[in-house]
Amino acid sequence: MKIRSPFVAVIGAGQVGATTAQRILEKGIADVVLFDVVEGMPQGKALDLMEAAPVEGHDRRITGTNAYKDIEGAEIVVITAGLARKPGMSREDLLAANARIISDVSANIKRYAPEAKVIVVTNPLDIMTHLCQKLTGFPSQRVFGMAGVLDTARMRYFIAERLACVPSHVEAVVLGGHGDLMVPVSSQSKVGFRQLKDLIPAPELAKIEQRTRDGGAEIVALLKTGSAYYAPASSVCEMVRAILRDEKKVLPVCAYVRGEYGLKDIYSGVPAVLGRSGVESVVSLQLTDEESQALQRSADKVRQGVSEVEKILANENARVSS
Ligand code: APR
């Protein structure tokens, strides 16, 4: 069956990629091309998903492929290719292996989908997003990462659990890098127009913030083989919908900042307006001094990771050419 435009290409048909494809299809958002390097696997998953269509009652289409030329014309490319974290492994441990994968994927996106918006999901997220932008050479407005929606969703759920309310009623925001130094911004969190600090005592709130920072690791420790994928897929899907429908929705995303929040020329988790052009602007929130300092620390760690990955790739390139 022929894929119709606008369509989304998902690179990596593993847990996050396939679940993202499923959500995009079953919510009726767009057709999907699912790519993986493993032969037969994306084709098998795509066929399985198509066979669910009569029961799910949607008319979206998906094809699986091992050929990059099939992503030609994609409006959005979602990168989930890479290794997932194992127990005891930090996101940073993944750095070198996933940097090689992102280099290969970015070169192919540049070649086959030069007009696409790119949503990076592969960890360590902020560093991989930076790398993808550098290697594709696309405007930073079109290359951004999914992390803030997920981190914020985790925090919203933990708050809802504590207050015994519906999770979607909780407004919260988590900024900074998608790592141990992410910044849950409790000063901006509300439930039913009420400030969070008036609903939850400070020591308990501090525990919720820490559980949010450890949210990914908590799932990894439970699963033992692999990392989270349901909530990550939901989060990517929300971003895809905001872009394709030109919703101008403000979502926390890993975006390139040029002075906002005192951060310059770096990718960081910030609230941004998402529309058909990608990241259309960064939204500035009033932070407390403590939150601002935490955001700086988080950005410093991302900067460190970026220079580490650039060194690794430069050494590898030097070895190849010698
Ligand atoms: N090109 C395309 N796909 C690749 C490549 C490559 N060079 N290398 C690996 N893959 C594919 C694998 O074949 C696999 O199907 O990426 C897929 C990854 O899937 P999983 O191992 O199931 O990992 P997943 O849980 O989906 O996580 C993927 O998202 O959240 C992040 O930390 C997570 O970086 C990880 C990524």
Question: Would you give an account of this structure?
Answer:
- With 322 residues, the protein is an alpha/beta fold.
- The protein has two domains: 7-145, NAD(P)-binding Rossmann-like Domain (Rossmann fold, 3-Layer(aba) Sandwich), CATH 3.40.50; 148-304, Lactate dehydrogenase/glycoside hydrolase, family 4, C-terminal (L-2-Hydroxyisocaproate Dehydrogenase, Chain A, domain 2, Alpha-Beta Complex), CATH 3.90.110.10.
- It is built from nine helices and 14 strands.
- The strands form four sheets. A six-stranded parallel β-sheet has the order 3-2-1-4-5-6, sandwiched between helices. A three-stranded antiparallel β-sheet has the order 7-10-11, covered by helices on one side. A three-stranded antiparallel β-sheet has the order 12-13-14.
- Helix 1 packs across helix 8 (230-244) and helix 5 (148-163) packs across helix 8 (230-244).
- Bound molecules: adenosine-5-diphosphoribose.
- Adenosine-5-diphosphoribose (APR) binds next to helix 1 and helix 3.
- Adenosine-5-diphosphoribose is lined by residues 11-17, 36-38, 80-82, 84-85, 98, 101, 104-105, 121-123, 226-227, 229, 232.
